[in-house]
Design a protein that fits this description.
The structure is a homodimer of 385-residue chains.
Chain A lengths: L1 H8 L5 H10 L1 H9 L6 H11 L4 H15 L2 E3 L34 E4 L4 H6 L1 E5 L6 H16 L3 E4 L5 H11 L4 E5 L12 H10 L1 E4 L9 H14 L2 E4 L7 H11 L3 E4 L10 H9 L3 E3 L3 H8 L22 H9 L8 H8 L3 H13 L4 E3 L2 E3 L10
Helix pairs in contact in A: 1-3, 1-5, 2-3, 7-8, 8-9, 10-11, 14-15, 14-16, 15-16
């Protein structure tokens, strides 16, 4: 009850409230704040303004009753299902360049709609976020990645916005997977209302969660506060499309500061919806460019877990051929066959070198023996250029 | 004459020929090779095969006569216009992973068509290379970048292929700039023939150059050998589009090994023509993602040369706002105005903080004072989300 009341007195993530709660517990912190006893003048002013018209304890009771009618529950750090990863927000300092981490402390509580346990849902989870004004390209890529993640048993986490967020949830649901929407308003307040049916499906098959009590409005600054939970609760975050000035870019700032896996999908440089993605990739070497599901899985999976799928080892990959093998492969005619001698002459290499490289190229199925000579395999195209 | 004959005996870049020439000079090296006196068995075999049917000295004389008729000249390191940067190829070791640098040594000579001097043409030069099967996107981006480079007084360097290469030359010519085509065949052998008219325009306004004497065929392995000259002679290389198995990717390997500026344009992950670009960006942190001309100029220009264009300093850029300023900006209503008190309440910040941040936001023109309150400037849109 005290944690609910505290979340109403100051926005979630408030440093002072979080530090006081950690030291003295939530009930004592609530008492102190209500009596005006706290070291932060801005917080004192905020408490004064908010308690002028209402009693926070009564509001907390009302929120709990409302949640009960709705079938929602409130989860606090003492609960077994609390997602431990969000506690790392306690150490988040955004950067050393003078910026502050005003509202970046861990949540005091989480409101939850849905039958799954929080900790299990976030254990193997990837956030997929991005622009509301997503393009067809962004929606396509999001669907591919989120569907694949869900198929592989990963939870998909996102906000509740149109565009990339909605596409990610829909794809995870379509794959029969678990999807989690982290909202910046009450879990009973579908926002945007156009996603109402989607939220109901998520509550049925996955989880709707929020730091704000039922009935809370989706105030604009809350989206920025909410983003830190998406960043902290997941193993990594994929930004699919993001305009230059977007919440997804801010989320990725949190992801990087928390040293979670930061994954960014590139796009056409002519698309405004990829400008934020490219800025992220240019700004921080820790932001990893990803181009498909496999690469996302490699980032978030345990080492080796997802490398086995690769049909060929690197050594035999045409793109990583040594110089001599590349010259031999270049010398193989587009049509018909050539003898090793002919290849040696064309490639400017010794016959011995050619024979040694041919056996490697043959093992890698990059050339075949046919009609008494060496040929390209059916449908293979030479690099040329 | 000896250097021309040597290039005919062994493909350009040959380590042994280059080392012997450096130590003993070209005439003595030619004598030794023709007498079978060299330490490299593959080279001995190649010389034997090539001298069976022709006399390299006579062929060199014929090539020079042919060049004279054509208005072409041959340039060697002793000439004042020799582009010094290519000499750095002498130290090129591709990597430590067991790959060899077979044909990566500096050219022995360069055949040149065009009225410009080689050294001046390469002094401020950027290579723009990529796929033959370029998409509309690739052609568009290439045109933008190459036109801009030429406008800014940079030479544009590329191969002679269809697609990105041709688009780069055409854009540079359209801008009235200097463009250099580095060919893998004789400078009198338009290849592909579809680019014949383009090559004539390049020879008129820029330079056609090649390591191979006039009349030489565009053998496929020569494109890979040629690429090292493009990489070495320029300040940096931009890859606009590249398939996974492409010459442009190999060129970028040389660029990176030579520590030239390696610039890569991303594209849709759904495009096969961007697969090579994304692989380069993932494989090597030295490969720099670029999204416009300005970023290319920043890479290749002297420090500070191209930063002055930036209309606002970083501090005032909306995308790099500190947390508090971002919250204040978020709190400004989409329509109408708000008082600083209202902003403080919405943002959850103290009035003092809001006033301090507002003055910065106002300086940056991200908010304006209007009708006794704070408003967004005309046409600005809030980030939301």
């Amino acid at each position: 009850m005290a944690r609910i009341a505290l979340t109403w007195l100051a926005e979630p993530g408030n440093r002072t409230v979080w530090a006081m709660t950690r030291n003295d517990g939530a009930p004592a912190t609530l008492d102190r704040l209500l009596s005006g006893d706290n070291p932060d003048p801005a917080l004192r002013a905020a408490v004064l303004a908010r308690t002028g018209s209402a009693d926070p304890r009564r509001l907390a009771e009302a929120a709990l009753r409302r949640a009960k009618r709705l079938g929602a529950r409130v989860v606090i750090p003492a609960d077994a299902e609390w997602p431990r990863r969000v506690e790392e927000l306690s150490t988040l300092e955004l950067d050393s360049g003078g910026r502050i981490s005003h509202d970046t402390r861990p949540p005091l509580c989480l409101w939850v709609r849905g039958g799954r346990l929080l900790d299990e849902s976030f254990h193997r989870s990837v956030a997929v976020v991005g622009a509301r004004a997503a393009t067809g390209y962004g929606n396509h890529v999001t669907t591919d990645i989120a569907y694949g993640l869900a198929e592989q048993g990963w939870s998909v986490v996102s906000g509740g916005a149109f565009g990339i967020d909605a596409a990610a949830h829909r794809a995870a649901l379509a794959a029969g997977g678990l999807t989690v929407a982290v909202l910046a308003c009450g879990v009973d307040r579908p926002y945007p209302v156009g996603n109402t049916a989607l939220f109901e499906r998520i509550a049925d098959a996955g989880l709707l969660i929020s730091e704000w009590p039922p009935g809370s409005d989706p105030l604009r600054h809350r989206f920025l506060i909410r983003n830190r939970v998406i960043a902290a609760a997941t193993v990594g975050t994929v930004v699919v499309e993001a305009a230059a000035r977007s919440g997804a870019v801010q989320t990725m700032g949190r992801v990087l500061a928390l040293r979670r896996k930061a994954m960014v999908v590139p796009g056409p440089i002519t698309s405004a919806m990829s400008v934020g993605c490219h800025r992220l990739l240019r700004a921080d070497p820790a932001a990893r460019l990803v181009t498909n599901l496999q690469q996302v899985l490699e980032e978030v999976g345990s080492i080796g877990e997802y490398y086995a799928d690769s049909p060929r080892g690197r050594v035999h990959d045409r793109d990583t051929l040594d110089e001599e093998s590349a010259l031999v492969l270049e010398a193989v005619p587009r049509r018909g066959v050539a003898s090793p001698d002919q290849l040696a002459a064309t490639a400017g290499l010794s016959l011995r070198t050619v024979l040694r490289r041919l056996s490697l190229l043959e093992m890698a199925a990059l050339v075949v023996r046919r009609d008494g000579g060496i040929a390209l395999p059916p449908r293979a195209r030479p690099p040329g250029r």
